[in-house]
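Troubleshooting entry. The earlier prediction with guanosine-5'-diphosphate gave an output that would not parse, so I re-checked the input for stray whitespace and re-submitted. Clean input:
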Amino acid sequence: MPAIVLLGAQWGDEGKGKATDLLGSSVDFVVKYNGGNNAGHTIVVDGEKYALHLLPSGILTPGVVPVIGNGVVIDLAVLFTELDDLDARGVDTSRLVVSSAAHLIGPHHRVIDKVTERFLGNAKLGTTGRGIGPTYADKMSRVGIRVQDLFDEKILRAKVEIALEQKNHLLVKVYNRRAITVDEVAEEFLSYADRLRPMVADTPLLLGTALDEGRTVLLEGGQATLLDVDHGTYPFVTSSNPTAGGACTGSGIPPTRVDKVVAVVKAYATRVGSGPFPTELLDADGDRLRADGAEFGTTTGRPRRCGWYDAVVARYAARVNGVTDFVLTKLDVLTGWERIPVCVAYEVDGVRQDEMPMTQTDFHHAKPVYELLDGWSEDITGARTLADLPKAAQAYVQALEEMSGAPISAIGVGPGRDATIELRSLLA
Ligand code: GDP
Ligand code: IMO
Ligand code: MG
């Protein structure tokens, strides 16, 4: 089995970390290919809870080589704090490999992320404030600092100077903030250089060789399809490509080597931050989903916006990613509803639409067309086969599969690694 992509089908927090961890023991490499410490993955192993942000979720599996790919943006302070925390809990992190071409998040990026959001006022995106957008903007503007720049101090200082020049004018003259010096940025970066050096590699070469040798590589996406800068609800998106194409550019693995695209999708929907969300519930039903699903952000602690399952979004994700399998998560959270509405299409200005609207204006106007499915009241957290589920829960899964554009191959019924119904192998 060559490369497998695992990504989010909705607006993030679908349970990608748990799904990656579940596959960890069957793969050789787990590569994070996009985003940075804006991600937050909660993984529960034997009752122990781990919160990962920058590290690939495969780091928890003994024997797996975790890789931070070239498409990731790295905050070095966060990287080493996360590693130290895991080391203190007895997790072996010594195999971590970091791409020499990944970009670095600096203090200038973090401050610009925050002041830009403040400046936007009501139009703010609700970013995680981690400097993600400004770092990707510098990458595209060709003034970014990469991991490899740490190993040539002269070049590093020259690049930091270029990167800061315009930003300091902006910070001082527009935002009324103090200028950031070349020394403070260079020193922050250089303080980690010695510790980072042994982890750094040409990761596209490493992964290409591993695939040639028949190893299995899992490409783990942060964020999700509707947060993709190209295919998401722009401008209310992150600044990277979480979709399947991004897995190739962000890792250096070509599309011809990708065999499977596994999309993780929640049995309902959530979103953190601003932007359109047609099935959002702003009433007591939304509060109930948030409470039952513990829908509070792993990264910022913000309450997540909650709503019903949106099959238009799922079909869209199936199409733009070429999804071969869905992992349906958090089915247990829906226990106790008499009827469960599922969005099967939109009505946009009085006209029914079965696909994602072409324009953001139409998406903002989209009203869900609901189908009501029967609920169930039995506790399903102990179910390990489809037959263990109440008939109505089985019918709910089947209905979602029929309307979502790809087979559902696994179902999550609790946060723990074992609380999963595997219908077919995700790796075969
Ligand atoms: P990620 O960012 O996609 O990795 O997802 P998060 O970790 O941010 O959010 C998913 C949350 O749901 C985590 O707290 C998981 O422990 C939890 N979780 C994952 N799968 C299930 C499931 O099937 N049932 C329940 N109840 N919780 C789950
Ligand atoms: P995981 O990997 C949910 C959202 C932010 C904001 C927008 C842009 O845990 O699913 P950014 O800081 O990336 O510039 O913020 O994207 N966002 C996420 N929402 N899950 C995530 O990651 C997210 N990462 C970013 O809330 O709306
Ligand atoms: Mg998350």
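This one parsed fine. Residues 12-13, 39-41, 298 surround magnesium ion (ligand 3) (CB under 6 Å).
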